[in-house]
C-alpha cells in the first residue's frame, strides 16, 4: 500500500486547509487510516483516525472542534479538514494506515506517506 498526501501549504491564522491522502493498493475493511503530525524537536502527535469500514472517527479532544477526518471509499481517499488554524498547528502532516487498531494506538502504523507541510503564520 502506498499513500500520497496533498493539500498542504501556507495559511494565515484562522484559515482552513483540506489535506487529502490517496491510497494505492488494497485497503481492507479492518484497517485504520488517519493523520499524524510532527515538527522538528517535537513528539509525533496523532491528529485523527478513522475505521475504514464504518468511517467512525476519533480525534484528540484538543483538536476535535477544529479538525475533521473523513473518507471516500470509492476513491481510496482520506481527508483532513482543518479549520481555525493556529501557528502551533505548523507541522509536517503524515497520512498513515494500520492493519489493526492496536498498531495505530501504539504509534506503529504499517504504512506511511511522505508527508505534506502545513505552515500557519501571519
Globular, elongated, flat, extended or rod-shaped: what is the shape?
globular
| Global Rg | 13 Å
- Please give the alpha-carbon distance between the first and last residues: 37 Å
- Beta-strand residue percentage: over 45%
**Approximate helicity band:** under 10%
Summarize the structure.
4% of the residues lie in helices and 48% in strands.
Protein described:
The protein has 122 residues and is mainly beta. Helix content is 4%, strand content 48%. The strands form two sheets. Strands 2, 4, 5, 6, 9, 10 and 11 form a seven-stranded mixed sheet that branches. A hairpin with a 4-residue loop joins strand 7 and strand 8.
How are the SSEs placed, and which strands pair?
Elements: E1 2-6, E2 9-11, E3 17-24, E4 32-38, E5 45-51, E6 57-58, E7 67-72, E8 77-82, E9 91-98, H1 101-105, E10 111-112, E11 116-120
Parallel strand pairs: 2-11
Antiparallel strand pairs: 1-3, 3-8, 4-5, 4-9, 5-6, 7-8, 9-10, 9-11
Main attributes?
122 residues; globular; 11 strands; four-stranded antiparallel sheet; seven-stranded mixed sheet
